[in-house]
């Protein structure tokens, strides 16, 4: 803690570790309140703009919002917060009991900021928390003892008029399946055709009802004309022709086996 910024007289004998205070002032834990305030000097009447951070019952102030080390700290125990008339507008004071206790005069930048700081500083001390706990204990004891005090019941909030109500659910009725058209079955002949030698012989007369005539069959392809002597040669001649080539190949194979 910087010199010239002593804590309240109720904890004047408390020893504070500057390194621990600096770490607690700049840690990533959420703060109770933060913002710029004008702080009046102890010996001089000038106001200095400082960045204040409230954590629990400790009010730290820095040179600016980017500073990593606090200039001073105010321990908010045994103090009262009240509005004062000063040169600066929206001023309030943090007073401690005692003849030698120091009074901190601060000023906000707006009426809303001043009200927020006064409310936050008034609830920062453990004395205030102790009073709140005591009041809650008395209410709980009255409820348990049948004193006629009932706990507040949560009230249901009506929907805004701009939101339309949800439509009623429509019951699901399975629809009947669509009818499937029946496919026509092929007509069978009235009687089976006669058989000759185990094969059915179909008569030329139509046994079915007359219908569209089938397309005519494709024309038959004629055999290609012969292109050489082998195309018109009999089988014996073809056998003799190809047999000569086979015999020549077999003779070459036998001669190759005889030679060493």
From TrEMBL:
UniProt keyword annotation of Phosphoprotein present: yes
Source domain of life: Eukaryota
Compartment annotation: Early endosome; Recycling endosome; Golgi apparatus, trans-Golgi network; Cytoplasmic vesicle, Clathrin-coated vesicle
InterPro entries: Boi1/Boi2-like, PH-like_dom_sf, PH_domain
Single GO BP term: retrograde transport, endosome to Golgi
Region called Disordered, residue ranges: 205-230
Pfam families membership: PH
Keyword entries, A-Z: Cytoplasmic vesicle, Endosome, Golgi apparatus, Phosphoprotein
Stretches assigned to the PH domain: 30-126
GO cellular component, one term: recycling endosome
PROSITE patterns (UniProt xref): PH_DOMAIN
GO molecular function, one term: protein homodimerization activity
Subunit structure: Forms homodimers and heterodimers with PHETA. Interacts with OCRL and INPP5B.
PANTHER family from the UniProt entry: SESQUIPEDALIAN (PTHR22902), SESQUIPEDALIAN-1 (PTHR22902:SF17)
Family from the record: Belongs to the sesquipedalian family.
Role according to the record: Plays a role in endocytic trafficking. Required for receptor recycling from endosomes, both to the trans-Golgi network and the plasma membrane.
Protein name: Sesquipedalian
Organism: Rhinopithecus bieti
């Amino acid at each position: 803690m910087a010199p010239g910024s002593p804590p309240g007289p109720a904890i004047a004998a408390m020893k504070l570790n500057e390194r621990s205070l600096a770490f607690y002032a700049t840690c990533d834990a959420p703060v109770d309140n933060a913002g710029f305030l004008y702080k009046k000097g102890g010996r001089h009447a000038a106001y200095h703009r400082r960045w204040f951070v409230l954590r629990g019952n400790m009010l730290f102030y820095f040179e600016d919002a980017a500073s990593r080390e606090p200039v001073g700290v105010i321990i908010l125990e045994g103090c009262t917060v009240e509005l004062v008339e000063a040169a600066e507008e929206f001023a309030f004071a943090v007073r401690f009991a005692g003849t030698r206790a120091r009074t901190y005069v601060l000023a906000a930048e707006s009426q809303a900021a001043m009200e927020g700081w006064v409310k936050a500083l008034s609830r920062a001390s453990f004395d205030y928390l102790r009073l709140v706990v005591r009041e809650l204990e008395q209410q709980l004891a009255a409820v348990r003892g049948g004193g006629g005090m009932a706990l507040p019941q949560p009230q249901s909030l009506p929907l805004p008029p701009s939101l339309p109500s949800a439509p009623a659910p429509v019951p699901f009725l399975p629809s009947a399946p669509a009818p499937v058209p029946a496919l026509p079955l092929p007509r069978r002949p009235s009687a089976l055709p006669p058989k000759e030698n185990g094969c059915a012989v179909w008569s030329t007369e139509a046994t079915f009802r007359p219908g569209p005539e089938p397309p005519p069959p494709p024309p038959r392809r004629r055999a290609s004309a012969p292109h050489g002597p082998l195309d018109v040669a009999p089988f014996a001649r073809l056998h003799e022709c190809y047999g000569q080539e086979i015999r020549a190949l077999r003779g070459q194979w036998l001669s190759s086996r005889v030679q060493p």
